[in-house]
Amino acid sequence: MPLYRDEAVVLRTHKLGEADRIVTMLSKNHGQIRAVAKGVRRTASKFGSRLEPFMVVDVQLFEGKNLDTVSQVETLASYGASIIENYAAYTSASAMVETAEKLTGDVGSPQQYLLLLGGLRSLANQDHDPSLILDSYLLRALSVAGWAPNFADCSRCSAPGPHRAFVLQLGGVVCADCKPAGAAVIDDDTAKLLGALLSGEWDVADASSPRSRTSAAGIVAAYSQWHIERGLKSLQHVERE
């Protein structure tokens, strides 16, 4: 039974039998891992508290046919407690780990791992408004997955921007000539905020107005739901201004 080791973020857990848990993790080098953590629900368990959502761990596992088995765990970063204390941070983090689970598979994606890690750290440290952190994460995670949104030139004819009509099916803004009926229209401030969230210009994002944040959040949510199969259940619980 091959033994391997990696660092990972715990995405979610669920009960197995009377004392075990199945833990779903996003690892740095092995992609998404589903493993059995035996005896972690017992009071005497040595590493039960380390395998909770939003925790970052150094984990050693035995490779199994269907599920791997956790043999050793060391905590690298404990973001869970800080995130859970803040409802806005908790709901944002829940949407982030759900997104990570749906966008990744069993092939390693260090970019997706590091992106999630940075987002959770930022939530735990209260670096920015939780909803801004979430929207920035969603845009970047979709970009890494191959669905980078375009907020600059026309997505259909490449006419130089700025443009204010956003079309989900085309993945970005379009010019007045290419604008279809029913396209969402965003104002200058919202377009500026969306671009800042995608590129990580936090001085611009932090200075944005509540109105722009609400408008941008609607675009991000719609774009995410369009590309992620079965949508994101956690988004409906996210606190918005």
Number of helices: 7
**Largest beta-sheet characterization:** 5 strands, mixed, barrel
| CATH-derived topology of the largest domain | de novo design (two linked rop proteins)
* Coarse morphology: elongated
Q: CATH superfamily name of the largest domain? A: Recombination protein O, C-terminal domain
Strand fraction: 15-25%
Order of helices and strands: EEEEEHHHHEEEHHH
In the CATH hierarchy, the architecture of the largest domain is Up-down Bundle
Oligomer: single chain
The helical percent reads 25-40%
Total beta strand runs:
8
For the residues shown, what is the average pLDDT?
A: 92
- The order of strands across the largest sheet is 1-2-3-5-4
Structural class: alpha+beta
In total, how many domains does the architecture comprise? 2
Architecture overview:
The chain is of the alpha+beta class and 241 residues long. The chain has two domains: 3-78, OB fold (Dihydrolipoamide Acetyltransferase, E2P); 82-237, Up-down Bundle (de novo design (two linked rop proteins)). It contains seven helices and eight strands, in the order E-E-E-E-E-H-H-H-H-E-E-E-H-H-H. The strands form two sheets. The protein has a five-stranded mixed β-barrel. A three-stranded antiparallel beta sheet has the order 7-6-8, with no helix packed on it. Helix 2 packs parallel to helix 4 (130-144). The chain starts with a strand and ends in a 14-residue tail after the last helix. The mean pLDDT is 92.
Question: What's a concise summary of this model?
Answer:
The chain is an alpha+beta fold and 241 residues long.
